[in-house]
Structures are given as structure tokens and as C-alpha cells.
Amino acid sequence: YYYMRLSELLVFWERAVKGGRKSFRYDELDEEFFIENVKPIFIPYLDYIIGGILDKFADITIFSNPIKESYTRLGKDKAPKYISWSKENRSQLIRIPAASGEYVRAELRSPDPCANPYLTFTLIIKAAMLGIEKKMTPPAAVDMDLFKTPEEQIPEISLLPETIDEAKNQARDSEFIKENIPETILTYYCG
After folding, report:
1. What is the DSSP letter of 146?
2. 4 Cβ neighbours under 8 A, 6+ residues apart
3. What are the Cα distances from residue 123, in Å, to 43, 60, 72, 145?
4. pTM higher than 0.90 for the full model?
5. For the chain, give me the number of helices (H) and strands (E)?
């Protein structure tokens, strides 16, 4: 059983793009591909990955939170309400835990256990790759606990869709979703 970490996926992607290749076989990968040797490559892309995911996550929300009850959880019980990121607390959509080297990672904190992981991961990876390709930098980190801060003190930050109908409309109107999700699946999720 082999599990590919995001940093290894990025090296894989970089080699494929630079080499003009669409695929690799596992037995073609050399020892330089694996995690011990990718530390310098992962970190520069992290900002672009966060930027791409934050930019597209409102569109993705219906796939990561597919049932009505998912929306009663957002903004409560340690689930995020805002499209934001931080290294300092868990109230953000994306949290970067304190770590270094091979342990650097990003946590996406809103997906619901009812989400279809294949659709959700596909869209997250596509958003991350778009962020890398377009060099999308994320907005400034919101280093405050958004669960405890009064609403009037919270800077202007986009909200995740607050209802399932709002999430459906967001996805239905999204060119990003239309490019990456077949029409039959979009109709199933968005009506």
C-alpha cells in the first residue's frame, strides 16, 4: 500500500508539466521523487494551493457539504463559517498547523462526513492546481479566533454558503464546476 502525500503529488505534477508527460508508472519513479527530497519544492507552492482552494471553495461547498444538515454545522461546533486561512487557530477554513519540513500540511476544515470523497478531492486538487498554474496568492491570514470575535470586529471576509440552496446556486453558476464536473452529476447535486 502506497500513499502519496500532497508534496509528492506536487513534484509528480511539476515533472509531468515540465516534461510534457501526462502520466507516470510507479516503477518509473526514482528515489528523488519521494518525500525526503521534496522539502524545497512543496513550500513555495503552498501559498498558491491555498489561494486556489480559497478562490473556488464557495463553488465546491455543495460537494463537500451535500446535505441540509451540513449547513447547520458550519459556523458552529468548530466548523468554519468564513473563507479564510490562518496558522494560528482552528476557526478558519484552511489551517496550517505549526510544523516544519516534511510535516508541513494544510487542513481543510469544512468537509462533511457525508461528502463523496472522489468528487470532493477531485475539486480540491483541481482548485489547488489552478492556484499553482495561475499563481493565486491567498488573502492575508486571519489570525484571530473567529468563533469568539464579535461580528463587528471581524474584517470583511467572504462567507461559505449558509444554506444548501445557496451552495447549489453557487455551484450551478460556476464555470469552474462546469469544467470539472459532468452535467449529470451537477444536476444530481444542484437540481
Report:
1. T
2. 12
3. 21, 7, 23, 27
4. no
5. 7, 3
